[in-house]
Amino acid sequence: MLQHRAEKGSVPHKQRFTGLFSEVEPGASGASGGIDIDVAGTLEMQGAVGITSTTFGAGDAGPLQVSAGDLLMDGQSRVVPYRGSEFVAGIASEAAPSSSGQAQ
After folding, report:
1. Is residue 78 in a domain?
2. Can you give 27-85 as a three-state secondary structure string?
3. Each residue's pLDDT tens digit in the chain (104 positions)?
């Protein structure tokens, strides 16, 4: 289970997220690595949880594949400001508005 849990800290609760991320940094030109998840049973995602492959630079976002017997998302998606873009809980391949790379 991938689960976001609110904890006390310096980052406001509405701006925290958890998950698996592959990114091209701003100013970078190489492609990000891929993410391949294979779960025989249920993949459960709760709260501000994401599985994303994103480019913030010139390189392309890596391939993203998720296979699961069942997928359970609790619907508690949150939009969080992140690197001049927005992080949305869920599963996505993205190209940030400031990037010149492509999503897969």
Report:
1. yes
2. CCCCCCCCEEEEEEEEEEEECCEEEEEEECCCCCCCCEEEEEEEEEECCCCCEEEECCE
3. 555 454 444 444 455 677 888 999 989 999 999 999 999 999 988 877 888 898 989 999 999 999 999 998 876 666 666 777 676 678 888 888 889 999 88
